[in-house]
């Protein structure tokens, strides 16, 4: 049976109040705080109907009521129909660091979002299939250490410190940079095969003793870029919620965030829209006391990763949906800009 307007307004009032207080809500509270134009007795009857319909729950016989997952779902669906129509009076800071690693910029946005929302943020880091080498740079640190920079056409950059057994002749660096860039620029991971590496080794001259270490590092770098990584920020924010004051329950949350199999599955986008999974809607029992709001971020229109805000089902869905939507749009613009700059 569909909800009439009065039931909708009462359900919304109960949810809004419960989000703020974390306490079961009674009819008298709703009558006092919200101008619904009906008596406390009428509200009580309507709340009883909402409970019978599965939208509210009564945790204790003498207590008020709290939203069920079904109640939250009705509430969230209404928000999702309208979230693009509202904005808030702040802007996300842009990190225009053309030479920064893309994954470092994503982490900065995760930290910012965690700070703004006071929630835990989980991120599926950028994955760009078949990364192509744009440039490799080998820089001296001291007599037996060097920094290896690997940059790809997709804008991702990785750097590695390599220690060698023997000292390196400083005159070798220009030669090595030219050799490796001539052989590897434009190559993908699958093209950096044994034949190519043997060819580089054959032409490496006095660097033959350590050239394998450099090419191995480059190959491992490409493998890492092609793998999906996870990142989390603000994990301890869960302790700010009364639902997680119990240390055992808090530990189960920390264990969940560490579970890469579950997190990878939870963060896998079903489509290109804001997605909200509430409590028991999740296929994972570990998520049944939690909700996650997730949004993809892109480079030039191509999805490369996912952000998620995770917390108790009693979360401020309206504000959080707007915040993650704004953040993912801003991040997508920044990453696309960096991608274009790095292609020049």
From TrEMBL:
Q: What is this protein called?
A: Heat-inducible transcription repressor HrcA
Domain of life the protein comes from: Bacteria
Main role?
A: Negative regulator of class I heat shock genes (grpE-dnaK-dnaJ and groELS operons). Prevents heat-shock induction of these operons.
Keyword Transcription carried by entry: yes
Q: Keyword annotations for this protein?
A: Repressor, Stress response, Transcription, Transcription regulation
Heat-inducible transcription repressor HrcA C-terminal domain span: 103-321
Q: Name one Pfam family in it.
A: HrcA
The Swiss-Prot or TrEMBL record describes its family as follows: Belongs to the HrcA family.
Q: List the taxonomic lineage.
A: Bacteria, Bacillati, Bacillota, Clostridia, Thermoanaerobacterales
